[in-house]
Amino acid sequence: LNRRLAEFGTTIFAEMSALAVRTGAINLGQGFPDTDGPEEVREAAVRALRDGRGNQYPPGPGIPELRAAIAAHQERFYGHLGLSCDPDTEVLVTTGATEAIAASLLALLEPGDEVIALEPYYDSYAACIAMAGGRRVPVTLRPRPESGTYALDLDELRDAVTDRTRLLLLNSPHNPTGTVLTRDELAEIARLACERDLLVVTDEVYEHLVFEGAHLPLASFPGMRERTVTIGSAGKTFSFTGWKIGWVTAAPELVAAVRSAKQFLTFTSGGPFQYALAEALALPDSYYAGFLNDLRAKRDLLGDGLRAAGFEVYQPQGTYFVTTDIRPLGHTDGHAFCRALPERAGVVAIPNAVFYDHQEQGAPFVRFAFCKKTEVLQEAVDRLKGLA
Ligand code: PMP
Ligand code: GLN
């Protein structure tokens, strides 16, 4: 393994899911739903397979039907904010958001460029910045125990920008903390990006999981449309994480750049799934509302249960993850806690420290996923009550 990747090892998600399988524990670690997405969308994939649509290389940028559906989705949900995109020049289908992140960074960074990312961050960010030869500069979201939320210090963000900063890599709703950046924070980030002439890659895969208020795409803020690469994922929005279909929307020059990298990573992405997801994106509002309401109820069930079990809970405003502080339970090391948890309580969770450069900042925090059946969450909560 080369020096760029040597520090990364095996992803925590693979490690913890393997631990769940080995111990038979309830897996609230890796973020994947235990209920597949809509039946009619699965049927659409079967139809495409059977009818021979997408069984051979689809067009590299994505099939026209899916690109049109992505553009229509942007218009439908964000048109009132002035956002729209051209399906031919401003949309790229990718192999999950994971490839969208990798291709964006590989396309846009020069070796030595600095990339600012909000810490804790989704684990692929650090590895992809490294593969692209960039230097990561973390800006830490700080826990605010009094309000049970995390906060971005905008002065800290501003101070992190140097002459070598090329790009901000953002994520809102934020994995793992569940933070949703406010309108004011996004406006300030947009001002900073314009002032310092920065590109922004914004990972908005949880755009349909904002529990209070509505999702605000960063690209809709003044001056951002032409400097922002926005990333979405069918895995998250339609509960098909195994299909690995995501997308990028951005101005034509940026999409062309990301496409250049994508060509040589995968060239194209799962054909029949693209046909099915073109239909999924057009599902009525009731689908999106139902998905959100279901996960809000699950957030509350798990959050209440964790509180009752003695955890300090950081209430997520978005995503399907909840971050907890384990210190009230008498523990300080999330790694050790998560390694022992299957044995002690029959539950698997993720230590937040893995999402930090400043690991000590994340040490006492542990993430649980609530994209699971109600009875599974209930059982997990019952088991965790035995910990105190
Ligand atoms: N970004 C974030 C913030 C995520 O949480 C995830 C998946 N857990 C991804 C990207 C990757 O998405 P995909 O499965 O579409 O590659
Ligand atoms: N994004 C999911 C999570 O944060 C896992 C994705 C993966 O396993 N790569 O849990």
From TrEMBL:
Q: What is its EC number?
A: 2.6.1.17
| Compartments (UniProt record) | Cytoplasm
Its BP terms in the Gene Ontology are: amino acid biosynthetic process
Reported function = Involved in the lysine biosynthetic pathways. It catalyzes the transfer of an amino group from L-glutamate to N-succinyl-2-l-amino-6-oxoheptanedioate (N-succinyl-2-l-amino-6-ketopimelate) in a PLP-dependent reaction, yielding as products N-succinyl-l-2,6-diaminoheptanedioate (N-succinyl-diaminopimelate) and 2-oxoglutarate.
Pathway listed for it is: Amino-acid biosynthesis; L-lysine biosynthesis via DAP pathway; LL-2,6-diaminopimelate from (S)-tetrahydrodipicolinate (succinylase route): step 2/3
**Keywords attached to this entry:** Amino-acid biosynthesis, Aminotransferase, Cytoplasm, Pyridoxal phosphate, Transferase
Q: Which InterPro entries match?
A: Aminotransferase_I/II_large, Kynurenine-oxoglutarate_AT, PyrdxlP-dep_Trfase, PyrdxlP-dep_Trfase_major, PyrdxlP-dep_Trfase_small
- List the cofactors: pyridoxal 5'-phosphate
Q: Which GO terms describe its cellular component?
A: cytoplasm
- Please name one Pfam family that this protein belongs to: Aminotran_1_2
GO-annotated molecular function: kynurenine-oxoglutarate transaminase activity; pyridoxal phosphate binding; succinyldiaminopimelate transaminase activity
Give the family per the record: Belongs to the class-III pyridoxal-phosphate-dependent aminotransferase family.
Q: How does it assemble?
A: Homodimer.
Protein name in UniProt: Probable N-succinyldiaminopimelate aminotransferase DapC
List the SUPFAM superfamilies: PLP-dependent transferases (SSF53383)
Q: Key word Transcription regulation present in the record?
A: no
**Per the database record, which ranges form the Aminotransferase class I/classII large domain?**
25-384
Catalysis: reaction(s): N-succinyl-(2S,6S)-2,6-diaminopimelate + 2-oxoglutarate = (S)-2-succinylamino-6-oxoheptanedioate + L-glutamate
